[in-house]
Amino acid sequence: MLLFVTFILTIFHYSFSQTTQNINVLLINEENNALAEKSFEVAKEYVRRNPSLGLAVDPIIVVGNRTDAKAFLENVCRKYTDMVSGKKPPHVVLDFTTTGVGSETIKSFTSALGLPTISGSFGQEGDLRQWRGLNSNQTQYLLQVMPPADLLPESIRAIVTKQGITNAAIIFDEFFVMDHKYKSLLQNIPTRHVITPVKSFSKDEIKTQLRSLRELDIVNFFVIGSLRTIKNVLDAANENQYFGRKTAWFALSLDKGDISCGCKDATIVYMKPTPDAKSRDRLGKVKTTYSMNGEPEITSAFYFDLSLRTFLSIKSLLDSGKWPNDMKYMSCDDYDGKNTPTRSLDLKTAFQEVKETPTYAPFFIPEDGSMNGRSYMEFTTDLSAVTIKDGASIGSKPLGSWKAGLSNPLTLTDPENMTDYSAQLVYRIVTLVQEPFIILDEDAPKGFKGYCIDLIEEIRKIVKFDYEIMLAPDGSFGNMDENGNWNGIIKELMEKRADIGLSSLSVMAERENVVDFTVPYYDLVGITILMKLPRTPTSLFKFLTVLENDVWFSILAAYFFTSFLMWVFDKWSPYSYQNNREKYKDDDERREFTLKECLWFCMTSLTPQGGGEAPKNLSGRLLAATWWLFGFIIIASYTANLAAFLTVSRLDTPIESLDDLSKQYKIQYAPLNESSSMTYFERMANIEIKFYEIWKEMSLNDSLSDVERAKLAVWDYPVSDKYTKMWQAMKEAGLPNTVEEAVARVRASKSSSEGFAWLGDATDVRYQVLTSCDLQMVGDEFSRKPYAIAVQQGSPLKDQFNNAILQLLNKRKLEKLKETWWNNNPKAVKCEKQDDQSDGISIQNIGGVFIVIFMGIGLACITLGVEYWWYKWRKRAVIGDVTQVQPVKLSKNEFSTNEGKKIENFSIRSRNLNLADLKRKF
């Protein structure tokens, strides 16, 4: 029996001795990373107290300074040489350096000597510079796993993406390495951001740091660090009064516990890691049994799991026979830069296949390609909203979670709730009142309305934000003086007092040097001329003004004189009808030319109807023919001049273009002071002056030969000086300071050919014409430029607004805005069509003809009444005495009927009818 027991123990001892592997580990660490070394010791103790793992770890530890690369390398080489010379070369190098030149030195050391290495350094793919050019064999044994502190900042990317945050300040402490995050954390995301370390633990210095960030128009703050750091920053923010709807605060920490601060009223979105459900029992056991009490807990667990997994990976390779039998090690002195050993060691696969239960969360290892910058602990963070009032936490509301990864999104319990914890984007808009783009309206939500307000509201539907609107202090769009200083809207943007310049702001080259412009939201707009609308005076009797008064009097005198002569000729001529009745008794055309008939004949002769029967006497006919010729000439002249007279007012447009304006002196003209129109004319004048100086310098250049000088010999300056003269005339006329002043000066003009003309933006001029009937736009537009929205230089709003404006263009929303504020503008007035703008003669100028007709009709009616009265009066009977009755005897021939019958004698009695009186009346 004793022999049997001895046999069994011998077999057991033999079996144990065959499976237990002694592993030599070279642990390289930094001075400020004691937590990693402590976790390594816990892992070594764990192996020692669990003989079933079959491991025995023999470590050599080297601790160096992150910044002193030379001393660090010398110390590592010395320790490494001792291990090789002592016949205990390292199976693996555990690299717990985090960042800096010391860490890069260790990477160079391990890659040069071909040492199997597992690193816990910070850095994503390509960030480990000394391990960038690894070949396929080296990527199998030079391995990196990113620590939790390198993964937690990636949650910021998830939050920014989910919330659509456009600006952010990321503040971190010494427990996080962010050097490599500057380029990658928010890459390809349109978010203006600043990544900066906490400068100190002094509250005053943190307050100053926060103020400087706030001055950059940052409203979203991410504080990533220890709970102590978070408290210091939140306390400083509270004293700066940076809590409210206009700011959002996010706190991220690897520490256990809840955040705290002396905040009066604050809500902070808090993210902290939590162990996986499957790992919680193991974590508690390791902490209590092996005294793994380092904080942060997740960091201790990471280094513990990384160390233990490394041990098990080497054991697996040794047990499986995949560890090279002829593993050769070379010293630091033997390396010449080209003799790196070639290894055929698949440490990556062995590391990946370890089945040990994770202590906090599993490691993510990609199936293909290099592990470096792609492997990490796949932990989970809880996301909650913590409300603090008067320094005490009054509640915590769960919002969701985030699983560690390089591009993992947030998982939210209620996505709508998350929007309540983001900063309300409130942009400051600077503008100028310019109808119909910007109109003051106290009843409007923001105090303004107009085309641009409707435009920004449409953009708001696409780019979520709110805004405050204010007027430019100096009332200017923005111009640069001789010293390069700006004013107006441009100055407000340059000095960060405004985020958006919204108005009918023209895109100009010099403005684009200091601010950014979006794509144009309005057509090209140029400069044009506003003048007083010419008002042609109207008169109902305008047709009478064709001839002057003395001509009308002369015609009237000729009419009466000719009528009188015609009566005299007819009365005294022996050949007239009244003096030769017997001759013309059988003539059907018999007309006695009394004075009344003469007047009628001369009057009707001037009409197309004609005068009727002409006189019989030759003298009368000659006089009538003369009157006809006179009438024909008068009527023809009147008709021709009437048409020309009514047309000349429509053709009388003294100014039709800028050239016409520049060639006259009766009309003064000028643009607004400090406007883009003023800048245009001033620069054009300066350019002409510059050209003249160049021409004069060439002409007077003594270095030219006679032939060259002859080519330049001209008497006159060959280039126009139009703008020079115009600019001088503008300065003499005086530049108005406001649109109202300019329009008032235009209205004060005596006429369209004498007064003042305003040179302004075509939209301003067009709106003035739209809302009044006494103004007109003259000439074509020139110097055309588009309107666009201005933002601060480098602002992400440019791309966001560009996208929004292009969408509005595609949806034809901008055309609808034009329809609303131009065609359907409530202030638009409907003007009567002017006579000089019509195709015919207006009633105002020809209406007197109708008055003449009505007067003639009225006179005819009066005459009818007189005639009727006179007829009745004349027909009234007058009874008198019969003085004598005489029988009258007539011959048979005189009184016989056609049948030859005899008519009986009869007598006639006469009444006393007072014939003498009647003759006098006629």
From TrEMBL:
Residues that hold L-glutamate according to the record: 506, 511, 676-677, 761
Transmembrane segments: 551-569, 625-648, 846-870
Residues in Ionotropic glutamate receptor L-glutamate and glycine-binding domain copies: 436-495
Record GO terms (molecular function): ligand-gated monoatomic ion channel activity; signaling receptor activity
SMART domains listed in its UniProt record: Lig_chan-Glu_bd (SM00918), PBPe (SM00079)
Keywords carried by this UniProt record: Cell membrane, Disulfide bond, Glycoprotein, Ion channel, Ion transport, Ligand-gated ion channel, Membrane, Receptor, Signal, Transmembrane, Transmembrane helix, Transport
Entry's localization field: Cell membrane
Signal peptide bounds: 1-17
Keyword Transmembrane appears in the UniProt entry: yes
Highest rank taxon of the organism: Eukaryota
Intrachain S-S bonds: 77-332, 773-831
Residues flagged as site, Crucial to convey clamshell closure to channel opening: 655
Pfam family, one: Lig_chan
Chief location of this protein within or outside the cell: membrane
GO CC terms: plasma membrane
Domain Ionotropic glutamate receptor C-terminal per the UniProt entry, residue ranges: 426-824
Membrane topology of the entry: Multi-pass membrane protein
UniProt xrefs under InterPro entries: Glu/Gly-bd, Iono_Glu_rcpt_met, Ionotropic_Glu_rcpt, Iontro_rcpt_C, Peripla_BP_I
Protein family per UniProt: Belongs to the glutamate-gated ion channel (TC 1.A.10.1) family.
Protein known as: Ionotropic receptor 25a
